[in-house]
Design a protein that fits this description.
Blueprint (H helix, E strand, L loop, with lengths): L3 H4 L4 E5 L20 H7 L5 E5 L9 E3 L9 E5 L4 E3 L2 E3 L4 E4 L1 E4 L6 E3 L4 E4 L2 E4 L5 E3 L7 E3 L2 E5 L5 E2 L8 E3 L2 E5 L6 E6 L5 E3 L2 E3 L4 E6 L5 E3 L2 E2 L11 E3 L1 H4 L3 E3 L2 E3 L8 E3 L2 E3 L2 H8 L6 E3 L8 H4 L41 E8 L4 E9 L8 E5 L5 E3 L14 E6 L5 E9 L4 E9 L4 E12 L16 E5 L14 E11 L5 E7 L10 E3 L5 E8 L5 E6 L6 E11 L6 E12 L16 E5 L3 E3 L6 E3 L3 E9 L5 E7 L10 E3 L5 E8 L5 E8 L4 E11 L6 E11 L18 E2 L21 E9 L5 E7 L10 E3 L5 E8 L6 E7 L4 E10 L1
Parallel strand pairs: 1-2, 2-4, 3-6, 4-7, 5-8, 6-9, 7-10, 8-11, 9-12, 10-13, 11-14, 12-15, 13-16, 14-17, 15-18, 16-19, 17-20, 18-21, 19-22, 20-23, 21-24, 22-25, 24-27, 26-29
Antiparallel strand pairs: 27-28, 30-31, 31-34, 32-33, 32-35, 35-36, 37-44, 38-43, 39-42, 39-44, 40-41, 40-43, 45-54, 46-53, 47-48, 49-52, 49-54, 50-51, 50-53, 55-62, 56-61, 57-60, 57-62, 58-59, 58-61
């Protein structure tokens, strides 16, 4: 790896495909990283370091690295966390260091190297259509170290090209998944100066190392063991042309190779170490035993490999494949240190406001003891990660788990690791800092028609205004806490054409998301939940060539404090339908009339585990149905004065939905006022409730586009696909979800998304619901042919952030989903 001096000669480029701000057309900065590794590879030059964050889901893309560094300033690719995933990697440039990758060769070689002075370090490579690592001819200075290398049937694991020189293959674990084809793990043919040192070679009944027509080869400190097989090749095979200049010793070999033998040397087979050493003068320090199965604990049951390697062997490293220092005065043979646990360290990190990750690093591995790991998160939940696999594929220096806390607090995490001989217990204290909800009396904070909150002027084409969402006229509770996000009903009016409004934190970059789609000469509302800037302001951007006035009514705030309420989502429940008398009101709401609705308590669980709490606020999807005149509906807490605010704007004869988050009066009721000269039927579906004790904290995020069927965002498909008639849209919302823990991705309770329908070919509805799960009778969006309709959706999610967007229509429609936050 490069020294700090070497790395400092270039630029650091960042890659994060899950970032809402990522772009492949930028410079790869930390605030606007590249979306793909390929974009960074195309931009990187000598001395640059590419830092890669996040895994890749769905379609895995191949990577070509064509640029070269220098001896003093290589180009470095490395992970900032867990392994990143790529397809086949083709390195044609020289002086390149590539580490921390999960490389999937699919039907080809995992890595192809034709450039010189290339280092592969701490990678996991899987080849299925050729050599796992395929090296071109006349390549100099290749290093493959501390990596897991797997070959499925077609092998070899590493295939050197003719004329390659000064190659080092050190401290790797290899596996060849084939029986009887005499495919070598490491294959040399016409090469010079190759060091094969300290590897654990599971050759799958094949040949461990094959050396043909090569000079100055060193083979030391390796463990070569096929396991149990009926037929197979030799552990080491060196032809006559290579034998005179090959050095071989300090290897641990097996006689359990079926029809093969431990040694094939200069045309002769040798079944014992003694016979081989006597005939060739090589292998004086070799150990040959009846069974060497590196996939289990057989090595640990025999101490032959412990501390018996040659520390001066060419290519021998000072640490094992996991980064552990060798526990004895001399290295162990093979790639990993064989010892019982001798030390452990527990690390914690807040991976998001409500999510915590823990990492337990162990010095040593408990071979043969079936270790298990339990994590008690301190909130009544625990993960049992055992028994852990006690083989060479288990990295005991990076035992990782994550957990999403539902509520804000300080918790003690207890991590317990047990095996047959001892128990290791570590504790740590973690604190979460999500947000709770504080409803307020709906208050107008923006009206560009009269200069409230912004200049008295329409927002022009591509214009942006900054709105203070906590002006003096909003009455808020004392000691409310720092505002993290605002819930605001936004209405476009007096529009000169069609357009779109995007809300985002003041001071941040304009995201690829939207909140409100408007049309000429129509009043279009939509509820907005958006993270605020440090100055309590929200930016509103008009992404169109039209102009429009904007009205903003604050409904409440999310605050970084426990003073507010948690949100408890539920299966949508129809609590009001004036057409049928549901909710206690039968018949259309008359012009200028107000009706009241009693809302139920928040309820979690059922039967003996049922728990209830008073609902302080509720989320309702409210639909105006069959209005006889144009008008507005205002929803507000009972016991308060009708505010100068609105929630729904509608036109005669049309059905208009909008999500409403409203405080509940002290009598448990909310009110609906029809501000129209005509009557209107009202339907309300309860999406969830807020209480002081039940539910989850909110985590606002910088908005990002998770789905756009028009161009395939979130679909990971070759061709974008619209939502088909009467079916779910094809998408992968888990691709963009926050990282999940080992509890199956169930840490996130609900998502807050703006969902937009556009270009529908027939009338219909969109229904959002968690997967797995049954589709509810309630819907989230109502649309007619050809129109563009947005609505905020607060929907429960299944494991892995899974949810369905169901197109209840006889036609197709394009769908867009922008995520603004989630409930933990």
């Amino acid at each position: 790896m490069p020294t700090q001096a070497e790395a400092a000669t270039g630029t650091t480029l960042y890659v994060n495909g899950t970032s809402a701000a990522c772009t492949d057309s930028g410079a790869g900065s930390q605030t606007a990283p590249f979306c793909t590794i390929q974009a960074a590879a195309t931009a990187a030059t000598a001395g640059d370091t590419v830092l890669i964050t996040g895994s890749v889901y769905g379609a895995i893309k191949n990577l070509t690295i064509a640029h070269s560094g220098t001896a003093a300033a290589p180009i470095v690719f490395e992970s900032t966390g867990p392994r990143y995933t790529v397809g086949a990697v083709d390195i044609t440039g020289s002086y390149v260091e590539f580490s921390g990758a999960q490389i999937d060769g699919n039907l080809t070689s995992a890595v192809t190297v034709t450039g010189s002075h290339v280092t592969l370090d701490q990678d996991f490579a899987d080849g299925a259509g050729g050599a796992t690592v395929s090296v071109g001819a006349n390549v100099t200075g290749l290093t493959v170290e501390r990596s897991f290398l797997y070959a499925a049937e077609n092998g070899p694991v590493v295939q050197l090209g003719t004329g390659d020189s000064d190659t080092v293959i050190s401290t790797d674990i290899t596996f060849v998944d084939f029986d009887g084809g005499n495919v070598p793990a490491f294959a040399l043919n016409g090469d010079s100066g190759t060091d094969i040192t300290g590897n654990t070679i599971m050759d799958g009944c094949e040949i461990g190392v094959s050396v043909t027509k090569s000079t100055a080869t060193s083979i030391e400190n390796n463990i070569v063991g096929p396991g149990v097989c009926l037929s197979g090749g030799e552990d080491l095979s060196v032809d006559t042309a290579s034998a005179a200049t090959t050095t071989e010793s300090y290897n641990l070999l097996s006689t359990n190779s079926g029809t093969g033998t431990p040694y094939a040397w200069a045309g002769k087979d040798y079944s014992t170490q003694a016979a081989f050493a006597a005939a060739t003068g090589q292998g004086a320090e070799d150990i040959v035993q009846s069974s060497v199965d590196a996939t289990t604990d057989a090595i640990a049951n025999d101490s032959a490999a412990e501390g018996t390697a040659n520390a001066a062997a060419p290519g021998e490293l000072t640490t094992d494949i996991y980064g552990n220092a060798w526990p004895r005065s001399a290295p162990d043979r093979g790639a990993f240190a064989i010892e019982e646990f001798t030390n452990s360290t527990l690390y914690t990190e807040n991976t998001s406001a409500q999510q915590v990750g823990i990492e337990l690093d162990l010095q040593g591995v408990a071979w043969g003891s079936a270790p298990s790991l339990t994590v008690n998160w301190g909130d009544g939940s625990a993960d049992n990660l055992g028994p852990l696999v006690d083989n060479v594929w288990t990295d005991f220096t990076n035992l990782y788990d994550q957990h999403m806390y539902a509520q804000i607090g300080t918790y003690t995490v207890t991590v317990t690791l047990t095996d047959s001989t001892q128990t290791v217990t570590k504790t740590a204290t973690v604190t979460t800092d999500g947000s709770t909800y504080v409803p307020v009396t709906p208050t107008r904070v923006l009206d560009t028609r009269n200069g409230t909150g912004a200049p008295e002027a329409k927002i022009g084409p591509n214009g942006t205004i900054a709105v203070n969402v906590e002006p003096a006229n909003v009455v808020v509770p004392v000691n409310m806490g720092t505002i993290s996000a605002v819930v605001m009903n936004l209405t476009a009016t007096d529009e000169t054409g069609n357009g779109v409004i995007t809300a985002y934190p003041d001071g941040g970059a304009l995201p690829s998301a939207s909140n409100l789609n408007f049309s000429a000469n129509k009043n279009i509302p939509n509820l907005v939940t958006v993270k605020v800037g440090a100055d309590d302001k929200v930016d509103l951007h008009n992404g169109s060539s039209a102009s429009t006035d904007l009205i903003g009514d604050v409904e409440g705030y999310y605050v970084e404090s426990t003073t507010g309420d948690y949100y408890l989502p539920n299966t949508p429940d129809r609590v009001l339908d004036t057409r049928k008398g549901t909710g206690g009101v039968t018949g259309a709401v008359a012009a200028g009339a107000t009706i009241s609705l009693s809302v139920p308590d928040c309820t979690s669980g059922s039967g003996s585990s049922k728990v209830t709490a008073t609902a302080e606020a509720v989320a309702l999807n409210v639909t105006a149905v069959s209005p006889t005149a144009n008008g507005v509906v205002t929803v507000y807490p009972s016991g308060t004065t009708l505010p100068d605010a609105s929630n729904l704007n509608y036109y005669s004869g049309e059905n208009v939905p909008n999500l409403v988050v409203v405080g509940v009066g002290s009598d448990g009721e909310v009110r609906f006022h029809n501000g129209s000269t005509g009557s209107v039927q009202l339907v309300a579906d309860l999406e969830g409730c807020y209480s002081t004790t039940l539910g989850s904290a909110f985590v606002p995020i910088t908005p990002y586009r998770a789905l756009d069927t028009r161009d395939g965002i979130g679909q990971e498909s070759v061709e974008p696909s619209p939502a088909l008639p009467d079916s779910q849209v094809l998408w992968y919302p888990q691709d963009e979800a926050p990282a999940q823990g080992n509890e199956g991705g169930s840490g996130i309770a609900a998502a807050v998304m703006n969902v937009t329908v556009t270009q529908p070919t027939a009338n219909g509805v969109i229904t959002a619901y968690p997967l797995p799960g049954s589709m509810p009778t309630a819907s989230n969006l109502n649309f007619t042919t050809g129109e563009t309709v947005p609505n905020l959706v607060m929907v429960s999610v299944g494991p892995g952030f899974n949810l369905s967007l169901y197109n209840g229509s006889k036609g197709t429609t394009e769908l867009i989903a922008d995520v603004f936050g989630y409930f933990s």
